[in-house]
Amino acid sequence: MEDVHYILKKYWGYNRFRSLQLEIIQATLSKKDVLALLPTGGGKSICFQIPALAKPGICLVVTPLISLMKDQVEQLKKRNISAAAIFTGMSYAEIDLILDNCIYGHTKFLYISPERLKTELFITRVQKMHVNLLAIDEAHCISQWGYDFRPSYLEIAELRPLLPNVNIIALTATATRAVKQDIQDKLAFKNPVVFQKSFNRDNLAYLVKRTDDKDGALLRLLNRIKGTAIIYVNTRKKTKLISQFLAKNNINTTFYHGGLDNTERTQRQDAWIKGKVRVMVATNAFGMGIDKPDVRLVVHLDLPTTLEAYYQEAGRAGRDEQKSYAIILYDEQDILELKENIEKEHPSIEQLKKVYQQLANYYQLAVGSHDNTAHDFDWEDFANTCRIQPQEAYQAIKKLESEGLIRLNEAFFQPAKLHIAVNHHDLYAFQVAHAIYDAIMKSILRLYGGELFSEFCTISEAKIAQHMQTNPATVTQQLHKLHQLGVVNYVPQTDK
Ligand code: ADP
């Protein structure tokens, strides 16, 4: 087996591994099933590419996006590593040839979209390949609890019996508890080991600034912070408007959203990646799989939809570990909308209990109580029967689901835990977590001058506990949880 340091130097020219890379590589080489949670830009690709290069045989890589695949294949080829990709839209003959090369040729990496895994052509051929590793990129796509669930990812487990001696490495930048567990379950992990890098990004400053003039503030930022930038907005229309505004002010810019046709999107993305365009104004359609190391600034002109999404988007800055900025600009209106959304998304305990109870009644009425299989769940019927607004029911049910009290599966409702009485502890825990998040927001927005994610502010647990009328130990525990989720950057201070 070739030495992994030698491989790193030979193909990438790097002298040392980043933190956890070596540990992940070694565990993968020792045939464990590995789950690697590294922040965006943490260097995930090398974690499966190096073990695959160290051994004879071919590595299968499952990736959700064609663009991601093409990009990685190109990167590998540039380094003289033989790689190929199979995705929807290729002809039978093309695929046939690629698969032949994987069996008889020297292909080291085969990238494949999850939809292709179950085709007969692939299934018969893959068993003839000398597969040395199965790598699952963006592994959170397998979990309904994640923000980017792709049902086709569930098919991956069916590959395992065909490749009984092959271990898995699953990689993601998402690290919520439920998603971590789900990835291991759904991929049928046998000899599991989980690596999780601290999601603190020392080189990345998170700032939240209040302003009554977002356009002006944006211009000043772009003039002060040199280098490539991404500006995120919430609507397609705004991408164009902001881009036009910046262009008028002599800033080299383009815009990107899901409504543009494929060619146009690729052209704009390429121009930005190659540095021909400095500033990309985009909706959240722009992002996954974009490996541009030198993004110096990510600005959100609208409040991000979820904190997890924010973390991903902000994390596109500073992948080269150089000083970079993630900045939210907000105004009065944003705060009003945020408050409204939080209230909507966090129904009161009474409301939850009511919906939970009604759900139990409804389920018994509709399908009988001893049946354990999944059943169609009719939202409108449910809301009608219970005489509540569908929207109200939806929010409450989502909340119950996110707390693991019930399982709700796209179109059907699975009463896995329905017969367990409402667990007051869990409800309490999430009420506290929400209260803490709220308290942190409030304390930082109000007490600490509006720098929501500042690196420099010290938050006192005692103060928050007092504010929430709870004890500091609970606050500390919940802060750890929020930290794990990447919501806050929490570094406990010890008494000197
Ligand atoms: P991720 O998939 O975790 O977002 P990538 O695998 O795309 O990250 O890596 C991000 C960047 O960091 C890439 O440009 C990669 O070449 C670089 N990189 C990865 N590992 C190292 C290392 N050990 N030393 C220097 N640069 C590295």
TrEMBL record:
One of its GO terms (cellular component) is replisome. GO terms for biological process: DNA recombination; DNA repair. It comes from the Bacteria. GO terms for molecular function: 3'-5' DNA helicase activity; ATP binding; DNA binding; four-way junction helicase activity; hydrolase activity; metal ion binding. Residues 217-363 form the Helicase C-terminal domain. It catalyses: Couples ATP hydrolysis with the unwinding of duplex DNA by translocating in the 3'-5' direction. It is an enzyme of class 5 (isomerase). Keywords: ATP-binding, DNA-binding, Helicase, Hydrolase, Isomerase, Metal-binding, Nucleotide-binding. Its EC number is 5.6.2.4. The keyword Isomerase applies. Residues 25-193 form the Helicase ATP-binding domain. Belongs to the helicase family. RecQ subfamily. This is ATP-dependent DNA helicase RecQ. It comes from Amoebophilus asiaticus (strain 5a2). The lineage of its organism: Bacteria, Pseudomonadati, Bacteroidota, Cytophagia, Cytophagales.
